[in-house]
Design a protein that fits this description.
Largest sheet: 3 strands, antiparallel
Helix content: 55-70%
Number of strands: 3
Strand content: 5-15%
Order of helices and strands: HHHHEHHEEH
CATH architecture of the largest domain: Orthogonal Bundle
Shape: elongated
């Protein structure tokens, strides 16, 4: 047996051990994540597992996301977005989480940060306002998800796509 095969088998053995332990702690991770969301905090699970100070300080590591299903929300001050427009607040929030999120999460973040969206249908109002702007992009195939357009340089805007159709 080649040395690589022995290393692969050994690695697989430890992966299986890790999976066993992960299934034991998954309920704890879920409970902590729920509490973090209620508090607006984020727990650095990798820092806890690896040792303090060695994990992702943002709490948004892929390993945490795979354990919980999503990364923790960033902690927001009650006045974080006070006096800012919806666009400024939403952009600031997305820059902190560093990935596209569902419009409900942005709506909640604006509320927690002191810039609640009013109107008869706040969710619809915010979504339409953001995706009509040049700075935000709806995520194709993901209903109600929005990201920053700058993250997707190859994503064609709907305006450009419709202009090309009309030129033909």
């Amino acid at each position: 047996m080649a040395e690589d095969d022995v290393l692969r088998q050994t690695r697989q053995y430890y992966i299986e051990k890790l999976k066993e332990k992960a299934s034991e702690i998954r309920p704890l991770v879920a409970r902590i994540t729920t509490l973090d969301q209620d508090l607006g905090d984020g727990t650095d699970f990798m820092g806890i597992i690896i040792g303090e100070g060695m994990g992702d300080t943002t709490g948004n590591s892929p390993a945490v996301s795979s354990l919980t299903g999503s990364g923790p929300r960033p902690k927001l001050r009650p006045d974080e977005f006070t006096g800012k427009t919806y666009f400024q607040s939403a952009k600031s929030y997305l820059e902190r989480v560093k990935h596209a999120v569902e419009i409900d999460e942005i709506l909640d973040a604006l509320k927690r940060g002191g810039s609640p969206v009013g109107g008869k249908t706040p969710k619809k109002t915010l979504y339409i306002s953001l995706v009509r702007s040049k700075e935000f992009a709806p995520i194709p195939g993901q209903k109600n998800y929005v990201g920053l357009r700058s993250w997707y340089p190859n994503l064609k805007s709907e305006k450009k796509a419709s202009e090309k159709k009309h030129k033909k």
